[in-house]
Amino acid sequence: MGNDEHVYSPIRRIVAGHDESGKSVIISDGMATNFRQHGPRRSTLIWATKETPVDFLDLEDAGQWNLGTPPPPGGTRFCIIESAPGATYPAMHRTDTIDYVICLKGEIAMDLDEGSVVMKAGDVLIQLGTNHGWRNETDEPAFVAFVLVDGTPKFDPRLPAPRV
After folding, report:
1. Which of 3, 55, 105, 149 has a CA positioned 20 to 30 A from the CA of residue 43?
2. Domain ranges, ordered by start, for the chain
3. pLDDT tens digits for 89-100?
4. Residue-averaged pLDDT of the chain
5. Strands, DSSP E only, in 10-150?
6. Cα angle 125, 89, 38; round to 5
7. pTM for this structure?
């Protein structure tokens, strides 16, 4: 099966919050619908914040925001990326963020300026604004969760320009 034929899996997104009286309730429960297709990769935005600390009583559905790769300035971005079997992303890139990356299913390789590392289901990566690229060299899809937290430096001549 080629990359063009891959069928992407829906992701159930449950949001728990508070009602008007302050009681904890389920605000929404359904399939996440805010995704971007990038060739053999689908990135689904799960949630984001505009700042930290975050006002968690705000009922705006942050999973529907239109964001680029990095989070809003001072905020966070949580997404799940499904990489089709055989997918490669040759473009190296970086963001001015600390990323918490969790391989949920399958296996994915991260290429760095010097070397690469393969993540398998259950592996966790802490990425400190590194220049990197991704590839799935297996015949199974890979599901990877990303939490990007805005960080500094915003400019350092030793680093490549960040993705916006």
Report:
1. 55
2. 3-150
3. 768 888 999 999
4. 89
5. 12-18, 24-31, 35-38, 41-49, 76-83, 88-93, 97-105, 107-112, 116-120, 124-128, 132-135, 142-150
6. 105
7. 0.84
Strand ordering across the sheet containing 76-83: 35-38, 41-49, 76-83, 142-150, 97-105, 124-128
Mean pLDDT of 111-127: 92
Query: Would you give the DSSP letter of residue 159?
Result: S
In sequence order, the β-bridge partners of residue 97 are 150
Phi/psi region, residue 22 (left: phi>0; alpha: psi -120 to 50; beta: rest), is left
Percent of the chain with pLDDT over 70: 96
Look at the domain 3-150 and name its fold.
Jelly Rolls (2.60.120)
CA distance from start to end of the chain:
32
pLDDT tens column, 22-65: 888 888 999 999 999 888 889 999 999 999 999 888 889 999 99
